[in-house]
From TrEMBL, chain A:
Subcellular location(s) of the protein: Cell membrane
SUPFAM superfamilies (alphabetical): MetI-like
Name by which UniProt lists this protein: Sugar ABC transporter permease
Keywords: Cell membrane, Membrane, Transmembrane, Transmembrane helix, Transport
Organism: Spirochaeta lutea
Segments forming domain ABC transmembrane type-1: 76-291
Keyword set includes Plastid: no
UniProt family annotation: Belongs to the binding-protein-dependent transport system permease family.
Topology class, membrane: Multi-pass membrane protein
Ranges annotated as spanning the membrane: 82-102, 114-134, 164-187, 222-244, 270-291
Pfam family, one: BPD_transp_1
TrEMBL record, chain B:
Organism whose genome encodes this protein: Spirochaeta lutea
GO cellular component: periplasmic space
Family: Belongs to the bacterial solute-binding protein 1 family.
Annotated protein name in UniProt: ABC transporter substrate-binding protein
Matches recorded under InterPro entries: Bact_solute-bd_prot1 (IPR050490), SBP (IPR006059)
Stored Pfam families: SBP_bac_1 (PF01547)
Alphabetically ordered keywords of this record: Signal
């Protein structure tokens, strides 16, 4: 007689084992991920200074205030700029580097790889401090260059100029995360079947054609993961931006998370800050859903 | 017991164990030191790292105290200014403030006190500390007739200047705002940065606007804005912005000052590259710590008070300043209070003058200022002030303090007008008082 799978003695064991294995992680997940999100959602409905009791109910007013705030717009646009720079400059550069350095074709490749990967190992805050020195208006690199190569070159204070500061920060971001994506692509390259490439060459394909028609399609899953990490990372970026100027001068380098910190924490406006956090969470969540649904599953089909 | 039950049993045990992990933190404090009472103390460092003289002195004081009180252990945590502000907020929000921690008194402290995060030490202040420390300085740590801590330092913000540069350029100490505007181009001409400013940290820049507002409107204008008879958008506050823009138009600050930190500001002074900075009594120590030589400019450093402004209602003796002090967290024991009392001895207040450049508040300690002409000037300025204004970013509620700092940064960046600056501050005050 056929037994129902659920009442099979063996299945109970499997279920118990499953619970045993995922239980602790699930508990931690509930405690440190789900609970804070629910809490933040609740706090976002209040005008709350973060320490007293929750008494001043505001409904959705906080969200209205956020969307009216000019600084929030700047922050959101800055985040989108980071996404754009990551996708259209950083990732292609990383892919190019991977093609150059990922195939063990010449001596010193490993060394060069380490050089490009090195910035990623540095703590964000250290990166910020190093680049504060590089950009230092009195003895930094831009100032030295301008004094060396231009007639009446003077001091250049990139981080003190509201119109230039964010560009300077974008350079640091590309510099820092380039190596990480390069490594993902190098790993991806190794999964490209050599025979396919050879076959293409035999068929008379040139280098560009090999890359375009053989390598890129075979590395689809690498691109999917790197684009995903890149976008989520761009929205959550904080430390580097903070160390380079705390979102200033005059909020020109604010991102969503520095905005959350400057207008939530620093002002003891935790209700408002929570509303910002919920908004940020919403953006990432919707993007994630969309990406999982359309891109990642698409990628799987493509592979089949 | 069959296998299934055993596995379920193990699972329950595991859940229990992980729950214990969280509960475990609570009992830690008493258990850690074998019955000794542990007092946590968060203090500010001067950025000197392991050699930080502030830390060395505090460790010495702790050793002295522990020698007399073998059942108490004091756990010292030294933090940089900004790091401290961030860490203490998290601790307060979690409801676990340290036993003793740094404070500037005023609005932020009141916020903590209203939330019940501080221990009320009114009796101690009235019966004991007030015999040694003036009620003026103690007032900064009081609110609604109750006291939550005590200062060990109470000074003033004023101009620090490089006497050598002044002599070389041939200018004298400015007595009026017009004088200041006159000497700035001369100093620039001679190749020096006239004024160092770390406006990236915002609070050093807000000093300028507040002082100008005080010189323009005096105590009356502030009181009117504060109690609602007037507003921060009134004429003196708008005028303060206009005057600051007059100065800014002369290119008085170093290149990139809007992105510079207070440490950058201190370095410019300490390395003898800038002629002036507007800063509190602690400036010489920070200049030294951030200078290449590690010693600052030594005897070349002079001090003068904020110049008079023509047509202003404020007196030349009106002073903006503040001090450093400590408050007690809500769970602080009597031993913590006893240690604070021990710390506030004349002996240590004297030592702090050398180490931290404080203006002492403990009776008798002012003798330590002898020979330090700059600090004597500051102490006199504090003593003679008819109107003593705590820095706005500490005196006003935190949200308003931040709004003031943001508004002044925008003004200096040329993004908003003096009238808009004043309006923004008033709007924040309306929304948060």
């Amino acid at each position: 007689m056929k037994t129902n799978t659920l009442t099979k003695p063996g299945t109970y064991k499997t279920l118990a084992l499953l619970l045993l294995l995922i239980g602790p992680a699930f508990l931690l997940f509930l405690l440190f991920v789900v609970m804070p999100v629910v809490q933040a959602g609740y706090y976002s409905l209040f005008n709350w200074n973060g320490i007293g009791p929750l008494t001043k109910f505001r409904g959705l007013q906080n969200f209205g205030l956020i969307f009216q705030d000019q600084v929030f717009h700047t922050a959101l646009i800055n985040n989108l700029k980071i996404v754009a720079i990551s996708l259209f400059i950083q990732l292609p550069m990383a892919f190019g580097l991977a093609l150059l350095l990922g195939r063990n074709k010449f001596r010193g490749e490993a060394f060069l790889r380490s050089i490009f990967f090195f910035p990623y190992i540095l703590a964000e805050i250290v990166t910020g401090i190093i680049w504060r020195f590089i950009y230092h208006p009195q003895f930094g690199v831009p100032t030295i260059l301008s004094k060396l190569f231009t007639e009446n070159g003077g001091e250049i204070g990139l981080l003190g100029d509201p119109s230039l500061a964010f560009g300077a920060i974008l350079v640091v971001i590309v510099w820092k995360y380039l190596g990480f994506h390069m490594i993902i692509y190098i790993a991806g390259l190794q999964s490209v079947p050599k025979e396919l490439e050879d076959a293409a060459v035999v068929d008379g394909a040139n280098k560009i054609q090999v890359i375009r028609h053989v390598i890129i399609p075979s590395m689809k899953s690498s691109f999917i993961i790197s684009i995903f990490l890149s976008i989520i990372g761009s929205f959550n970026i904080f430390d580097v931006v903070w160390a380079l100027g705390q979102g200033g001068p005059v909020h020109s380098t604010e991102t969503l998370v520095t905005y959350l910190y400057n207008f939530g924490f620093r002002r003891f406006s935790f209700g408002y800050g929570s509303a910002v956090a919920v908004t940020l969470f919403g953006i990432c969540f919707v993007f994630n859903l969309f990406y999982q649904r359309f891109i990642v599953s698409e990628g799987r089909h493509g592979k089949n | 017991m069959n296998t299934r039950n055993r596995i379920i049993g193990m699972f329950v045990l595991l859940l229990f164990a992980s729950a214990m992990l969280f509960a475990g933190g609570q009992g830690e404090q008493q258990a850690a030191s074998g019955g000794k009472e542990v007092i946590t103390w968060w203090a500010l460092s001067s950025g000197g790292g392991a050699e930080d003289p502030r830390q060395i002195l505090r460790e010495q004081i702790i050793a002295d105290y522990e020698a007399q009180n073998p059942d108490v252990t004091i756990d010292l945590v030294m933090l940089d200014n900004e790091a401290f502000k961030q860490k203490i907020q998290v601790a307060i929000q979690a409801g676990t403030p340290p036993d003793i921690f740094h404070s500037w008194g005023g609005g932020v402290m009141i916020e903590y006190a209203e939330a019940g995060m501080l221990r009320d030490i009114t009796d101690e202040v009235k019966n004991n500390l007030s015999n040694r420390i003036g009620l003026g300085p103690l007032g900064v740590y009081g609110y609604d007739g109750r006291y939550f801590g005590s200062p060990y330092d109470m000074g003033a913000v004023g101009f620090w200047y490089n006497k050598d540069i002044f002599a070389e350029v041939g200018v004298s100490v400015p007595e009026t705002w017009a004088d200041l505007l006159r000497i700035v181009p001369q100093i620039r001409q001679a190749g020096y940065v006239p004024i160092a400013l770390g406006a990236g940290d915002k609070w050093p820049a807000h000093f300028w606007w507040v002082y100008l507002a005080m010189r323009m409107g005096g105590q009356e204008a502030f009181n009117r804005a504060y109690d609602g008879r007037g507003s921060f958008a009134d004429q003196p506050f708008v005028r303060a912005g206009e005057l600051l823009l007059q100065l800014n138009a002369l290119n008085p600050f170093q290149t990139g000052f809007l992105g510079a930190t207070y440490d950058d500001q201190g370095a410019l002074m300490g390395n003898g590259e800038a002629a002036m900075e507007l800063m509190g009594q602690w400036a010489p120590g920070v200049q030294a710590a951030n200078s290449v030589s590690g010693e600052g400019i030594g005897d070349a450093l002079g001090w003068f008070s904020f110049p008079a402004v023509a047509g202003g209602q404020g007196k030349l003796t009106d002073v903006m300043g503040g001090g450093n002090g400590y408050v007690l967290g809500k769970d602080a024991s009597d031993a913590a209070l006893d240690f604070l009392d021990f710390f506030l001895q004349e002996k240590y207040n004297v030592e702090l003058v050398d180490v931290e450049g404080i203006v002492p508040v403990v009776a008798g300690a002012e003798s330590a200022l002898e020979g330090n002409a700059n600090l004597i000037q500051i102490a006199d300025a504090v003593a003679n002030a008819g109107y003593y204004q705590l820095y706005y970013d500490q005196f006003l509620p935190p949200a308003v303090g931040e709004a003031v700092k943001d508004a002044v940064a925008k003004l200096l960046a040329g993004v908003s007008t003096p009238a808009q600056t004043a309006q923004e501050i008033q709007a924040s005050w309306q929304a948060n008082k």
